[in-house]
Amino acid sequence: MAGPGGSLEFWWAPDGTSTWHPEQVDGRGSSVAAPAITDDGGTVYLAATPLSGDTGLYIAGHGSSTWHKSWMAVPAPCNAAAPAITMVTNSTYGTFAETASTYGC
């Protein structure tokens, strides 16, 4: 979720409990629109749009608080809107996260 100052937060709870735990994924300005999330049973994938207008993909394994990020640049003068993310499985590449954003120029 987008947190204070546009930070990116991930909240998790162990199965069967009602206690939620917050985790900061990235700092101020990293998410200005609602982020998107998916999971493949062992890894969590978050897509977010920061102030730069690009789309960020954040990845962490279950049980880890270490998030790895990569950026999908948006051509200037465009800005990405709220991203979408899903898991895709095919015979060539296996299972992977696929993100998409709409752009306004």
Describe this structure in words.
- With 105 residues, the protein is an all-beta fold.
- It has a domain at 32-104.
- It is 0% helix and 49% strand.
- The strands form 4 sheets. A 4-stranded antiparallel beta sheet has the order 3-4-5-6, with no helix packed on it. A two-stranded antiparallel sheet has the order 1-2. Strands 7-10 form a two-stranded antiparallel sheet.
- A hairpin with a 6-residue loop joins strand 4 and strand 5.
- The mean pLDDT is 75.
List descriptors.
105 residues; two-stranded antiparallel ribbon; mainly beta; 4-stranded antiparallel β-sheet; 49% strand
Would you spell out the secondary-structure blueprint of this structure?
Layout: E1 8-12, E2 21-26, E3 36-39, E4 43-48, E5 55-61, E6 68-72, E7 79-80, E8 84-90, E9 94-100, E10 103-104
Antiparallel strand pairs: 1-2, 3-4, 4-5, 5-6, 7-10, 8-9
The averaged pLDDT comes out at 75
Sheet of most strands: 4 strands, antiparallel
Q: Please count the helical segments.
A: 0
| Helix and strand composition category | mainly beta
Tally of DSSP β-strands:
10
Low-confidence stretches: none
Q: Give the strand line-up of the largest sheet.
A: 3-4-5-6
Q: Report the C-alpha radius of gyration, rounded.
A: 14 Å
Oligomer: single chain
What's the overall geometry? globular
Secondary-structure element order, as H and E? EEEEEEEEEE
Percent strand: over 45%
